[in-house]
């Protein structure tokens, strides 16, 4: 995403007492501080001149994280974001103004932080995390994720866990992850291969509502069913060659009109423009205050990890702001069969009379695996491949076959999918 | 969130911000889309009418304000006579090195105003104590007052001014008092009376299946399962299956409900036995919801308590609409034993026609109960010599009635305590409780450290420092406080640790703590202003060394 001129840092001016507040925590240990803590100039030198930190996401959490890090004294910050600014970001993404709509988030955010906090260098990358390789990620001391996508987090987590080389302590990059929804959120510290990783806790995510195709096609009951019908079935039928753009109001308008007509036909009430947009874009409510809490929690932990001035969170902080200020801090345990950081294979109990298709369905329903459109093979033999089309066609007949014809009890299956940043191994347990 | 509740709140959100629901949202609705999905247009209007005062313009104040300016509060004022120092510009994102020496309120307002054109910001460079002497009414002219890191003595004076400035607790301007020190913070409140009109409780509305309303019972009885072909059989909604099953059980048990565990299991088995194949989806749903057959529909205890509260039993013509509704509710409950039915039916496996039919049954019943509720409301009005013609002007119109009924289960009224009224015994008992539980967090210990630090400041006019002398003196202040509450012997380690940390912090306002507390202050402010969601009752203590928060009841 080449020729956009990158912002330049503003040189640090002479600024006595600049860090007067933060320095209280770096000039003296507290009763809970680790004995390894080296007070004073050494820790300040590391924080302000050597530590390199990566922020993933320059959205709701990212804007807050960048501002916090700069004020805490992190002076070499990198930020990756692939999005451009939308008007609906302005109720919380406080580094952006109406004039910035349409521009890349990473670049505008970097520019703003550098001008407001002189002496800070923020290096933006307008693109995807997947564009970068291990040698890129190896240069950082810490990574903070402020993402709204489960898929991107899984990729980042798997990459950082995969980078760990027991011979090289520098290869261990702590990952701090934040997430919010409405008045709720969570922040966690992941020490790859040592503490529970993102993948270990996949089953804690809220299960996403998926409407069965037969409901959408035949027995709609809710306004959401009508909207799904318009987007999943009608759009591809009417526009076989055009991809839907959920950011284009004309496309939303079309879906809204189709959904309304269907709702009217079935005497269903409640299809609105806003609901249509919410369903097709899977909108999660978001506010500045919750992002501020979670981002600050992430940055507090980054500061503690970088300086050792206080013990870091071990390892999960959960906030519920809907009823008073309630939070819960606990240690999430590693999962021995975690496909990313564990060593044990995952057991998949199945019935002998199941078809391969039924197995795939059961697999996609598993909350601890969360895979869409998986391809399967056993001992190098392809059972079913989603792509390319020729191979899909060749393996399709297997979908109808019974598992007892395809595999033996205890066989190991390899699962791959484009949404899965690693290969998964399953042990099939055939039951009667 | 249940799909139907979702639809409801979004519809509500779009209705008034941009009038018709069928057109594309305007720029304002688009800008606020992600928050309107939480507090709807009613919450947004309340925010836009709010005027908030921040006493002092430090990092925690501007961090809080940022989260209130972005969602579009009406107006804010920062009261601060101090100039921006080098240290202020270094720890505050809304001050700049170029503004050093300028007034802190003016500089803060300048940078905060950039965030949202529709918010009016005012800098007031007067001194809070001088203003408390000369013009205490100034403080009562705001919707909400938030004092951050001001002198403890001034906190007390401010709290007193807000109490004296109102004739009833209901009119008292809510006050939030915040102190921060390094990784520690506390948020306290002084509220007179606060009403939550919509708690956004996550429990779905009851369908009252343990005592189905007559039309539903009749409808369910008319479904003859044996006569249905397998497709129709697989599409009987679980609501009907449960009502039928319970109905036949009661007919063979002298009309009694299942009471013991064994009886409930037996009832569940009866339901299972109705299956034909074993994998019918509607039965899967019915089995999962089976508990609804024996869970008695009750009135939530908070509501029951509220209905016997003085503000409800002693209704006045001048009472806010919510108390008219609650009085009407109490009359309604006397007659019907239930809260009025909320016509939100969850999704269930069935055909479109059956679902719509069932939904219409619920809507018709809800309509009947709504009319009955209005009769009660009429009685409530007559009790205070009001007339039915006044309903619209008193905010008791049909729209408001429907909204009240929809949220009735989540209505809460808080009676606050005055700031500074906590007794030493209360602190000691909270401390003992957290020591006994042995678990994180330890809010009473950190709270004690804040009190000792304030005592120290009162004595010396400066924050304690991490020196042996200051530590010893802090320990003495804490010991005096706790001994007054009945504590005997040495102070526990949680307290001495907190004292050590508070001395180390020297009253510093570090950016991450400021940001975190600023988020919490803004969440609470939004809850107070919109009267949606449930605010803190008591004092929240934040400990970012242990990465915990805890709420003390006082
Ligand atoms: Zn793991």
From TrEMBL, chain A:
InterPro entries: E2-binding, ThiF/MoeB/HesA, ThiF_NAD_FAD-bd, Ub_act_enz_dom_a_sf, Uba3_N, Ubiquitin-activating_enz, UBQ-activ_enz_E1_Cys_AS. Its EC number is 6.2.1.64. Keywords: ATP-binding, Ligase, Nucleotide-binding, Ubl conjugation pathway. It catalyses: ATP + [NEDD8 protein] + [E1 NEDD8-activating enzyme]-L-cysteine = AMP + diphosphate + [E1 NEDD8-activating enzyme]-S-[NEDD8 protein]-yl-L-cysteine. It comes from the Eukaryota. One of its GO terms (biological process) is protein neddylation. The active site is at residue 214. Catalytic subunit of the dimeric E1 enzyme, which activates NEDD8. Belongs to the ubiquitin-activating E1 family. UBA3 subfamily. This is NEDD8-activating enzyme E1 catalytic subunit. It comes from Calocera viscosa (strain TUFC12733).
Automatic annotation (TrEMBL), chain B:
Residues 257-284 form a coiled coil. Residues 32-533 form the THIF-type NAD/FAD binding fold domain. The keyword ATP-binding does not apply. Transmembrane segments: none annotated. GO terms for cellular component: cytoplasm. Keywords: Coiled coil, Ubl conjugation pathway. Belongs to the ubiquitin-activating E1 family. ULA1 subfamily. One of its GO terms (molecular function) is NEDD8 activating enzyme activity. GO terms for biological process: protein neddylation. It comes from Calocera viscosa (strain TUFC12733). Regulatory subunit of the dimeric UBA3-ULA1 E1 enzyme. Pfam families: ThiF. It comes from the Eukaryota. This is NEDD8-activating enzyme E1 regulatory subunit. The keyword Endoplasmic reticulum does not apply. Pathway: Protein modification; protein neddylation.
């Amino acid at each position: 995403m080449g020729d956009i001129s990158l912002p330049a840092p503003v040189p640090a001016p002479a600024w006595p007492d600049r860090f007067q507040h933060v320095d209280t925590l770096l000039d003296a240990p507290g009763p809970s501080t680790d004995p390894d803590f080296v007070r004073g100039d050494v820790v300040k030198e590391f924080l302000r001149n050597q530590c390199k930190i990566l922020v993933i996401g320059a959205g709701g959490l990212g804007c807050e994280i960048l501002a916090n890090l700069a004020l805490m004294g992190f002076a070499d910050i990198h930020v990756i974001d692939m999005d451009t600014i939308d008007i609906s970001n302005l109720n919380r993404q406080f580094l952006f103004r109406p004039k910035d709509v349409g521009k890349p988030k990473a670049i505008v955010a970097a520019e703003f932080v550098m001008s407001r906090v002189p002496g800070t260098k923020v290096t933006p990358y307008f693109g995807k995390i997947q564009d970068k390789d291990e040698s890129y990620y190896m240069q950082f001391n810490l990574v903070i994720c402020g993402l709204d996508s489960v898929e991107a987090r899984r990729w980042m987590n798997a990459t950082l866990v995969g980078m760990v080389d027991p011979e090289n302590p520098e290869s261990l990059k702590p990952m701090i992850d934040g997430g919010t929804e409405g008045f709720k959120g969570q922040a966690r510290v992941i020490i790859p291969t040592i503490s529970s990783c993102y993948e270990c806790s996949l089953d804690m995510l809220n299960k996403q509502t998926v409407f069965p195709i037969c409901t959408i096609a035949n027995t709609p009951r809710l306004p959401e069913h009508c909207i799904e019908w318009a987007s999943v079935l009608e759009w591809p039928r009417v526009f076989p060659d055009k991809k839907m753009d959920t950011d284009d109001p004309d496309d939303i308008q079309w879906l809204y009109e189709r959904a309304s007509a269907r709702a009217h036909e079935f005497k269903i009430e409640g299809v609105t423009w806003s609901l249509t947009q919410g369903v097709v874009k899977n909108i999660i409510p978001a506010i500045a205050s919750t992002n501020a809490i979670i981002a600050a929690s992430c940055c507090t932990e980054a500061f503690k990890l970088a300086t050792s001035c206080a013990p870091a969170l071990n390892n999960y902080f959960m906030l519920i702001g809907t009823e008073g200020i309630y939070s819960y801090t606990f240690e999430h345990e590693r999962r021995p069969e975690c496909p990313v950081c564990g060593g044990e294979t995952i057991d998949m109990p199945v019935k002998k009379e199941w078809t391969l298709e039924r197995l795939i369905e059961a697999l996609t329903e598993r909350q601890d695996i969360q895979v869409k459109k998986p391809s399967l093979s056993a001992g190098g033999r392809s059972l079913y491949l989603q792509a390319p089309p020729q191979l899909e066609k060749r393996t399709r007949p297997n979908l109808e076959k019974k598992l007892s014809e395809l595999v033996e009890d205890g066989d190991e299956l390899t699962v791959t999918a484009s949404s899965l940043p690693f290969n998964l191994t399953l042990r099939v347990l055939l039951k009667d | 969130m249940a799909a139907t509740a979702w639809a409801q709140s979004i519809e509500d959100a779009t209705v008034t911000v941009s009038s018709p629901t069928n057109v594309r949202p305007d720029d304002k609705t688009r800008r606020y889309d992600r928050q309107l999905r939480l507090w709807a247009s009613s919450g947004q209007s309340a925010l836009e009418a709010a005027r908030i005062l921040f006493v002092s313009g430090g990092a925690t104040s501007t961090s809080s304000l940022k989260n209130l300016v972005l969602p579009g509060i009406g107006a804010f004022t920062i009261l601060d006579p101090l100039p921006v120092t080098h240290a202020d510009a270094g720890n505050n994102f809304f001050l700049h090195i170029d503004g050093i020496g300028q007034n802190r309120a003016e500089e803060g307002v300048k940078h905060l105003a950039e965030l949202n054109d529709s918010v009016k910001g005012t800098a007031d460079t007067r001194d809070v104590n001088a203003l408390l002497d000369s013009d205490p009414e100034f403080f009562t002219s705001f919707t909400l007052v938030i004092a951050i890191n001001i002198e403890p003595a001034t906190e007390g004076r401010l709290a007193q001014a807000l109490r004296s400035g109102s004739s009833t607790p209901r009119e008292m301007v809510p006050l939030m008092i915040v102190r921060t020190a390094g990784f520690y913070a506390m948020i306290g409140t002084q509220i007179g009376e606060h009403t939550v009109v919509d708690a956004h409780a996550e429990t779905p509305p009851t369908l009252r299946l343990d005592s189905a309303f007559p039309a539903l019972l009749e409808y369910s009885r008319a479904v003859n399962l044996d006569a249905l072909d397998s497709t129709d059989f697989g599409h009987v909604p679980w609501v009907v299956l449960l009502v039928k099953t319970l109905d036949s059980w009661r007919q063979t048990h002298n009309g009694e409900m299942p009471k013991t565990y064994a009886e409930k299991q037996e009832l569940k088995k009866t339901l299972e036995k109705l299956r034909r194949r074993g994998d019918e989806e509607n039965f899967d749903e019915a089995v999962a919801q089976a508990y609804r057959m024996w869970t008695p529909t009750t009135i939530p205890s908070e509501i029951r308590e509220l209905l016997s509260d003085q503000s409800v039993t002693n209704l006045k013509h001048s009472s806010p609409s919510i108390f008219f509704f609650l009085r009407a509710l109490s009359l309604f409950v006397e007659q019907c034993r239930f809260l009025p039915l909320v016509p939100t039916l969850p999704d269930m496996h069935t055909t479109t026609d059956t679902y719509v039919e069932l939904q219409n049954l619920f809507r018709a019943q809800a309509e009947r109960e709504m009319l009955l509720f209005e009769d009660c409301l009429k009685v409530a009005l007559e009790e205070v010599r009001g007339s039915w013609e006044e309903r619209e002007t008193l905010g008791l119109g049909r729209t408001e009635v429907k909204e009240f009924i929809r949220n009735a289960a989540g209505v809460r009224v808080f009676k606050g305590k005055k700031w500074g009224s906590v007794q030493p015994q209360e602190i000691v008992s909270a401390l003992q409780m957290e020591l006994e539980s042995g678990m994180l967090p330890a809010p009473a210990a950190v709270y004690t450290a804040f009190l000792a630090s304030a005592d120290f400041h009162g004595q010396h006019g400066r924050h304690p420092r991490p020196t042996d002398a200051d530590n010893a003196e802090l320990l003495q202040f804490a010991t005096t406080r706790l001994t007054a509450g009945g504590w005997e012997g040495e102070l526990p380690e949680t307290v001495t640790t907190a004292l050590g940390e508070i001395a180390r912090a020297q009253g510093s306002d570090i950016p991450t703590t400021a940001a975190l507390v600023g988020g919490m202050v803004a969440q609470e402010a939004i809850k107070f202003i919109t009267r949606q969601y449930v605010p803190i009752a008591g004092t929240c203590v934040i400990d970012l060394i242990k990465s915990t928060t805890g709420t003390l009841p006082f």
